[in-house]
Amino acid sequence: MLALRAVGLRPALRVSKASAVAFRTTHRQIKTDSLTPVDARTILDKQRLNRPLSPELTIYQPQITWILSIMHRFTGAGLSVGMYAFFLSYLAAPVVGVPLDSAHIIDFIHQLPEWAKLSGKTILSAPFVFHTLNGMRHLQWDVVKGMNNAAVKRSGYAVLAGTVLGTAALVMI
User: Fold this and answer.
1) Would you give the DSSP letter of residue 62?
2) Angle formed at CA 13 by CA 10 and CA 19, multiple of 5 degrees
């Protein structure tokens, strides 16, 4: 007991014994009822109506981090779908009898008006440049560089600026 008093634990132990005795003397009466599954489901549905709804995206201010994350997924999926569609059509062309070799593709693009060529280049190059630059940004995060809020925002705007410049460079070639 002397060691407990020296450490300062003896009064705390006395209080905990007293609270334990007080807790043991307090009894609470609980009554339970057996419910059918239908009645239990009805009660649960009523409780769910009173629960607060989780916030939707519409109440949040758009942030560059989640906008670029969503766009990274969309551009990746779009580029993959486009790539697979072209490769499968290139493989199926001889079977179907449609000429889809490099010479025919070049002739087809050469016959298009200038606005269609520029639009096509933009539609193909913008997702490619964005996905590439944003992927490099993610690789930088994988080695834990630029992970604070200011650096993440800065790199997001740098990706957007690089996308505009890179797309313009590829369209003008």
Assistant:
1) P
2) 145
